[in-house]
Amino acid sequence: MRGTDEAAGSLFSYVDLEERIPARHPLRKVRQIVNEALTTLDAEFDRLYAAEGRPSIAPERLARARA
Predict the structure, then answer these.
(1) Alpha-carbon dihedral of residues 40, 62, 9, 5, nearest 10 degrees?
(2) Residue 56 has what pLDDT?
């Protein structure tokens, strides 16, 4: 079963990462491109995961963690 792609917020940090990265930093554009690419794969991810069972870590989160 496919898990959700929701941010945990401040689970391990008291500082919001969005506040640490300047608005015009190049990583923001990279993140936007990656998120758009992962959105196009949404249907494929749904097809690959079972409809029942224990939810896994969302593949989008795993892909972002590798980057």
Answers:
(1) 40
(2) 86
